[in-house]
């Protein structure tokens, strides 16, 4: 144990580890706040769908050799999020079907154009890194950290200021409409923020594992608490702690960052489930 602590202290002297922790904690915090709302609205797999859309957009940016890929990925993902959370409710293709269709199509499209048009020598390696977040969280630029900090502050402030309205939209959207509140506006803002977090989270866990950031902390907290406020706070704590443990475990044992974080989340969920089962006997 002492040897592991000393090893962690040595690694903490490196800027890339500090950057990974800062970004990881902020993304985990924002994902947990949005995750509770998305799970309760039965839109928990939106992270999966939007991450695949982001992968498709990343493929386009790679083929076009766009210098700052976020400029292209972010707006495409935001448009997809608005379609899924807002427009998707008013068309014949409803929520889960729209997510499945968009998710599969975007993933297939992205992999197709990468193979057909990319001039890279290691396409399989690049795709694997994008899908599972193998090393990108440990190679963040200072600009990436600044963008993440600014975005996270905006998300947290929005959630705190509009907490009551988010609560109402989550549990009784029809009642909010009856009182004259603009529910479409709040749903649209939630969609945009979700898309932004999804794009940022690609560096943390990769495209295929993003939904774990939204789902596992919220579900674990729901096993322990019943009120929306308690679940939200517990979800944030679980998410942040799980990410920190996952990053350090990955560094110490040389395991993939994204997969390790998700396995930690899974372990927390299992422990919470067992704890609840024992207490209710």
UniProtKB/TrEMBL annotation:
Per UniProt, the keywords (alphabetical) are: Membrane, Transmembrane, Transmembrane helix, Transport
Q: Which domain of life is it from?
A: Bacteria
Q: Name one Pfam family in it.
A: ABC-3
> Where in or outside the cell?
Cell membrane; Membrane
GO BP annotation list? response to zinc ion; transmembrane transport
Q: Which family does it belong to?
A: Belongs to the ABC-3 integral membrane protein family.
This protein is called Zinc transport system permease protein
> Origin organism of this chain?
Lachnobacterium bovis DSM 14045
């Amino acid at each position: 144990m002492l040897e592991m602590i000393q090893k962690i202290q040595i690694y903490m002297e490196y800027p890339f580890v500090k950057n990974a922790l800062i970004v990881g904690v902020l993304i985990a915090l924002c994902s947990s706040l949005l995750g509770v709302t998305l799970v309760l609205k039965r839109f928990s797999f939106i992270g999966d769908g939007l991450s695949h859309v982001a992968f498709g957009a990343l493929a386009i940016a790679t083929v076009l050799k766009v210098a700052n890929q976020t400029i292209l990925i972010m707006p495409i993902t935001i448009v997809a999020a608005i379609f899924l959370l807002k427009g998707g409710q008013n068309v014949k293709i409803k929520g889960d079907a729209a997510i499945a269709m968009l998710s599969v199509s975007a993933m297939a499209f992205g992999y197709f154009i990468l193979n057909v048009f990319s001039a890279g020598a290691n396409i399989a390696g690049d795709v694997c890194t994008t899908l599972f977040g193998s090393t990108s969280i440990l190679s963040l630029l200072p600009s990436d950290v600044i963008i993440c900090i600014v975005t996270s502050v905006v998300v947290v402030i929005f959630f705190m200021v509009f907490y009551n309205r988010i609560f109402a939209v989550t549990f009784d959207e029809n009642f909010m409409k009856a009182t004259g509140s603009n529910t479409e506006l709040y749903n649209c803002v939630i969609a945009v923020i979700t898309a932004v977090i999804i794009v940022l989270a690609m560096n943390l866990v990769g495209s295929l594992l993003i939904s774990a950031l939204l789902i596992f902390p919220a579900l674990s907290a729901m096993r322990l608490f019943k009120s929306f406020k308690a679940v939200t706070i517990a979800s944030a704590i679980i998410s942040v702690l799980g990410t920190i443990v996952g990053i350090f475990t990955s560094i110490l044992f040389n395991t993939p960052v994204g997969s390790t974080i998700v396995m930690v989340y899974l372990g927390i969920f299992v422990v919470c489930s067992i704890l609840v089962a024992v207490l209710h006997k």
